[in-house]
Amino acid sequence: MADIDTVEWQQRYRRLLEAADMQAVEFKGAAAPRVTGADDRAGSLSLAEGLRDPARIRRWLDEHRRPGSPREKRAAAAVLQQDLSLQMLAPLTIRLLLEGRTALPGPEDLVLLDTDAPYCWVWNGVGPVVDTAAFIPAISARLLSWYPVFRSALRVAPGAYWSSAGLALSAPFSALYNRAPPEWLCREASDWLARFPCPASRYIDWIPARLADNRCALPQRRGCCLRFATPAAEYCGTCGIYRKERMQALAVENEQ
User: Per residue in 125-168, pLDDT tens?
Assistant: First the structure.
């Protein structure tokens, strides 16, 4: 992994913002994970507690997501990990590229609420503030340390786990998907993700694409979060099920 220059990445991201005709203030909400309040604490479960005793996460899933078959149980666990990535890690990564510094919460600081609501993860507001050079290896190490529990105890597939992590770490670029020049955005997003010393970059391809009549850049999963297999039967916007179709469409467009 090459040396990480915090100022360089801030400048590179600022240039993308300028090309997209966007201002940092537009990301105020997206760069702020929900912080736990006093009313959240009753019955809550920290990620650290769940990693030490995965049966507690399984009980939470049984109570709040009510999966039936073994396949639905795996899907519920994969979606829970996807929500952890997108609700907690994504906002912190956006803040990192906007400001050059961000919080680095530990697993004891990430809290799973006793709720049936879709937004189930919160942060207790604790953790050191670090720059890009510190954040990248630290968050990679944490993702690597959490992976064995989600894989072995909760049966989350590698493609599901690492593609969700990759989407979270790519969040600053996803926010510009239909505003910045697609090829440029894809190059910057791919380069950024490659800096993380974990498998996340192997499970995300950034591709220029066309939605309706608009050119854009999309992060494409190599793997599936299985959200479609939950009772809600939803498909995420980067669904790996449609990966082959999108890649073929891109190849046809490039030939024209």
Answer: 999 999 999 999 999 999 999 999 999 999 999 999 999 999 99
CA distance 93 to 110: 15
CA angle 242, 192, 129 (to 5 degrees): 120
Find the Cα–Cα–Cα–Cα dihedral 37, 40, 41, 47, rounded to 10°: -100
Place of tokens 């959490």: 146
Please state, in angstroms and rounded to a whole number, the distance separating the CA atoms of residues 137 and 116.
33
**Residue whose entry in the numeric block shows the structure tokens 């915090």:** 6
The end-to-end CA distance of the chain, in Å, is 37
- H/E stretch holding 206: strand 204-211
Report the distance separating Cα 251 and Cα 83, nearest Å.
32
Both structure tokens of 252 = 């046809």
Backbone angles phi, psi at 179, to 5 degrees: -120, -40
Provide the residue type at 60 as one letter: W
Judging by beta carbons within 10 Å of its beta carbon (0-12, 13-18, 19+), is residue 90 exposed, middle or buried? buried
Query: In this structure, what DSSP letter does residue 122 have?
Result: E
Closest by Cα among 169, 174, 246 to 202: 169
Question: Each residue of 85-137: pLDDT tens digit?
Answer: 999 999 999 999 999 999 999 999 999 999 988 889 999 999 999 999 999 99
Burial of 120 (0-12, 13-18, 19+ CB in 10 A): buried
